[in-house]
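Title: Comparing notes on inverse folding

I've been comparing how different people in this forum approach sequence design from structure. To keep things fair, I'm posting one structure and asking everyone to reply with a full sequence. Here's the target:
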């Protein structure tokens, strides 16, 4: 039975979806794909490498982009872990690999809806999965109409972690060590508008540690190969400008690239629960929304800095969940929160204070927030297209600061601004819990809080959720235990100091 995947256009076009690798962190791609799909983008060409094979495989299996994002949100990353037998470990250092594919084939692929038979039968898109032929030391682009389960597994098989795959008298493994995408293959097939969702970091600073340096090796291979392909496309565009028609192209080839500003946390951080699938999907969605909002007609410059990220600094992150009600019958948060017929809403947010020292110095105390709104009654999860987080930010009124949680969301395809504030007012200590856990919400039409208020309500952080917040508080980009404790200590010092100045000392002064 043949089927047209959701990403394929009704009529053949020249747009390609390029999904490079990034380990389990390709959950980020699912959020970006969802936003591109909502924007109306459809693709006649597809390309998957390494971890990106999972997302391309799911889409070609018939999984809708929104459903794919939801599947990544609900995925337990420990399902990837599948150790080999003790007898094999005893063979160290002649170990075949530290793990096998049982977790991927038995749990991950079924959870993501990946079905090789459906992939081979899918129509409306010309796609390939990139796998390394070890004997030839070459990348082989296997058409989706011919891909097998073993070849998909081989394309995701990083040396040492999972074994190479033997098939057809050849040894196959992950292509990421040669290149992490195959732009030119899509260009040669006819694509002239490439959408790349990039997950691998491109950090300027060499970092210590075995895992970091293993990842640096992947960065060097993947980024260098991408830069080479961008340069090759630039040369093709020069030929097109001169009147030639390479591969039949008459118009310049455009490359769009969605990527994070800072490297995505590595797989062990995801496995340890210090970053969630929710956070990765939400970040990918928001980065795609930002790119769509700011993209130039000419797409990205075809130069080697295209994937460059900022140098990471010592920071912290934590997750926060608040639940309550909002009413579309009032503009007053207190009234909306008290309305038993109001709509239940949950705000799920991951807060990233990327530079804890800079955050403390900043008079506005701004951080980054990847978030989504969940409404079981309305049946949606709406990721943020933009966000604003501030902790003890000045209000302009003496003795009052705000904890601000704001995000842009699309409701019925129209932009809205969810504006939540906790009012932290100088006073007696017994007011501290209520004020620091109560979020007063207004929902506005448009891109910010200046728009018309269409709903209002109250969300609260419960005791269990507060405990969960503290459990997820973790240091980011901190080599060594001392640096981790220092970053967390600096955050706690700022947070506790702000509370003491607001409540305890102010209460005694009264």
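Reply #1:
Here's my take.
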């Amino acid at each position: 039975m043949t089927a047209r995947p959701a990403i394929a256009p009704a009529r053949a076009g020249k747009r390609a979806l390029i999904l490079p690798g990034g380990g389990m962190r390709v959950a980020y791609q699912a959020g970006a794909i969802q936003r591109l799909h909502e924007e109306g983008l459809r693709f006649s060409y597809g390309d998957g490498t390494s971890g990106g094979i999972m997302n391309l495989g799911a889409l070609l299996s018939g999984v809708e982009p929104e459903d794919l994002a939801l599947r990544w949100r609900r995925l337990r990353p420990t399902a990837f872990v599948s150790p080999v037998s003790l007898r094999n470990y005893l063979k160290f250092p002649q170990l075949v690999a530290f793990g096998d594919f049982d977790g991927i084939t038995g749990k991950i692929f079924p959870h993501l809806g990946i079905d090789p038979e459906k992939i081979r039968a899918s129509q409306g898109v010309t796609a390939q999965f990139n796998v390394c032929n070890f004997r030839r030391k070459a990348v082989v682009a296997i058409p989706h109409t011919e891909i097998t389960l073993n070849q998909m597994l081989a394309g995701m098989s990083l040396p040492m972690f999972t074994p190479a795959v033997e098939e057809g008298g050849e040894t196959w493994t992950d292509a990421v060590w040669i290149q992490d995408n195959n732009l030119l293959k899509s260009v040669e097939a006819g694509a002239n508008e490439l959408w790349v969702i990039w997950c691998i970091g491109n950090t300027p600073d060499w970092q210590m540690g075995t895992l970091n340096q293993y990842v640096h090796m992947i960065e060097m291979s993947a980024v260098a190969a991408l830069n080479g392909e961008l340069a090759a496309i630039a040369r093709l565009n020069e030929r097109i400008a001169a009147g030639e028609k390479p591969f039949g192209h008459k118009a310049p080839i455009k490359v769009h690239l969605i990527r994070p500003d800072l490297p995505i946390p590595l797989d062990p951080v995801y496995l340890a629960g210090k970053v969630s699938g929710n956070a990765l999907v939400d970040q990918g969605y928001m980065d795609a929304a930002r790119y769509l909002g700011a993209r130039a007609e000419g797409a990205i410059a075809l130069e080697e800095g295209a994937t460059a990220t900022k140098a990471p600094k010592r920071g912290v992150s934590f997750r926060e969940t608040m639940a309550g009600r909002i009413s579309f019958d009032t503009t007053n948060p207190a009234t909306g929160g008290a309305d038993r017929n109001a709509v239940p809403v949950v705000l799920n947010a991951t807060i990233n204070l990327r530079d804890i020292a800079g955050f403390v110095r900043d008079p506005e105390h701004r951080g980054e927030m990847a978030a989504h709104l969940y409404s079981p009654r309305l049946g949606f999860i709406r990721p943020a297209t933009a966000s604003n987080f501030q902790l003890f930010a000045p209000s302009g009124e003496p003795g009052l600061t705000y904890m601000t949680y704001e995000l842009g969301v699309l409701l019925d395809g129209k932009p809205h601004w969810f504006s939540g504030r906790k009012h932290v007012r100088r006073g007696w200590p017994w007011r501290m819990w209520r004020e620091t856990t109560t979020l007063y919400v207004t929902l506005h039409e448009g891109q910010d809080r200046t728009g018309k208020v269409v709903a209002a309500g109250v969300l609260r952080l419960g005791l269990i959720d507060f405990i969960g917040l503290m459990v997820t508080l973790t240091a980011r980009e901190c080599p060594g235990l001392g640096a981790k404790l220092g970053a967390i200590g600096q955050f706690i010092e700022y947070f506790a100091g702000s509370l003491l100045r607001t409540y305890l000392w102010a209460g005694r002064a009264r």
